[in-house]
Amino acid sequence: MNSGQTSARAANHGVAESAPCTSSNREAAPWLLGDSSKREARFTGQWLAEWVRSVAPELAQLSFNYELEEQDLVYLCDEAAAHFGSEFDKPLSKVSRQVQQWLTTALIQYFLEYDWAGEEVAADSEALVHGSDSAMAPSIAMTAMLGQCLTAINGYIQAENEEQLTNILTFEPPFTGDHSNMIAELRQAYPKGSEDALEKKCTQSLVAARDGTGGNGSWTPFITFIAHYLTYLRDVDLERNGYLETYNSLITLQEKAQSALVHPAYGHLMLLPVVNCAKLVCRLAIGLDKQPELIAHLKSDEPVDGDGEGGPRDTLPERAADTLRKAFTTCLNDRTSGLGKDGRPTGKKKGIYKIANICLKILFQCRKTRNATMIFMNIGNQSPPLSAYPRSEQVTYLYYLGRFLFQTNHFYRAQEALQHAYNLSPTDSSCVRQRRHILVYLTTCNLILGRFPSASLLQRHEALHFQQHFGPIMQAMRTGDLGLFRRHLDLGSPSADWLLHFRILLQLQNRCEVHVWRALIVRTWQISGHKQSGRPENEGNTLLDINKLVRAFNLAEKSSQNPQDASYVDPDLDGADLEIEEEAAASTISVESRLSSLISQGFLLGTVLHTQLILVILGMKAGNVVTAGFPSPWKVIKHKANAEVPGWRKLPQIAGGGGQVINMKGARAAGSE
Predict the structure, then answer these.
(1) Residue 345 phi/psi, 5° resolution?
(2) Between the chain's N and C termini, which has fewer beta carbons within 10 Å?
(3) C-alpha span between 633 and 617 (Å, rounded)
């Protein structure tokens, strides 16, 4: 299209001459229709004219391979004013989307209005169909939305508008509206095999990333990411059988996005797109892991290692977590951001807990929790304080930290993290499920520590059925009923499936029985214990015959046995059961061992006289002997526990210390002896 033809078109439409659109005018016009700084502004004719003059030339160049002249711009401005005249003085945010869509349609109609323009488009389309030039710019009807998208992205980079860039980069299907139209254009103009041409198109369009702005240097990885993003949109398969291919495409896209995240000046623009893509990768990886029939062909009997010995392959969730850990490390090690004046994280630091929580979700879902160790260590050493982050991120992180500490048998530290997560979690009905999960592990930790939930807590919505599953355990721990305790935690118990679902059955079996022993000893002392007499220094001590404890434990052991199991004798083992039963019965040695365990843990203040088979409880001359001789397990554990919880960053990082705290206690001056 030449200037003569353009002038003729302008004359036919009655377009008057006006001042040329200079570069200064173009810079003054807003790039972004959705810019947050313009949301409270009003929609005016001046704004509309400036925006058309700013956006239309680049959109025409990118989409139609044509440079608009002044007559074209005047015509488009007049058309825009006529179309939107009734919308003037409305809030800009209400009509900005309509203006953006209108410009694309107006340009297409403008170029296709005359027969010669249609012939030009037809020729271009014919050339594309026959592949005469793979690098040729797509025709008007094929890539109008693509050109508009790339123009908008280029503007978002120039304005460093993270919010709008995030909004335009949609990852999760189904796609609607402009994205759906752009996908149709991509499939027609850039089918599979034309990825190089598509990347070249992106390189030509994303000038801000290619050349850089403000002396920040080029951002080539972002161009590569956009090319892969468009390829992903074109090829995404919504059918169930295509989930694995979609997962592989997303993993590749995630890696490209994380490469763009590394840029020191522009990388922060990619933080939320990286997080959004990571969430989709997480859900898809977990979903595929739960549907092994979709990934059965990945399993192979061939050895993985070259030495022929083979080895386990990484699962899809593990691969996803390994990929996301790189983004986590990028955010954690970023030196260009930190805490702002308001105490909130800035730049890439904002993504530390967002990405960490996604990684932790994957690892816990696929039961690879050991791989979470480095995440907790790195956060504990380098992260800003957890309290500086949004409450939702704090709750999620502390939940996973608490579960990790629970699985590694650090129950007091686990309850510290879980208690804080529970206190921070919202109490509205939409969060009942999350609060329930936290409370399951928090209650289990507290029972192991000898601490019971209150009656009011058990009445809350998130504690539904807790009395049914935890009530018998608490009753056994109060009364010393070993039979009730073991029957309730047996695999045949009605509560076994529920406890196994949350993976807390074994911990309750192994860690709570010591509290049942303690209660059984208390009851035995109350029945047959007596004060020690004789020397004044022994006044206040109480004695308990260990033989009576042996009988008490034997009765408790018998009550815990299943009568049906006791009556069955395998023919091949006839005659051997009696010996096993004798070995299973509580002996003097086993009871002394249990007493020693309670004394060493501080749950029993006393001593065992092995030669006399007597337990001496060190009570008080006056007062409650039970309270004095059997301290509360919770108070004993709390007194011994370290207040610091590894992985929970509570204080700001010390400058120059690399996140490490150095204890200078006992340090001496140089040269001192």
Answers:
(1) -70, 150
(2) C
(3) 16
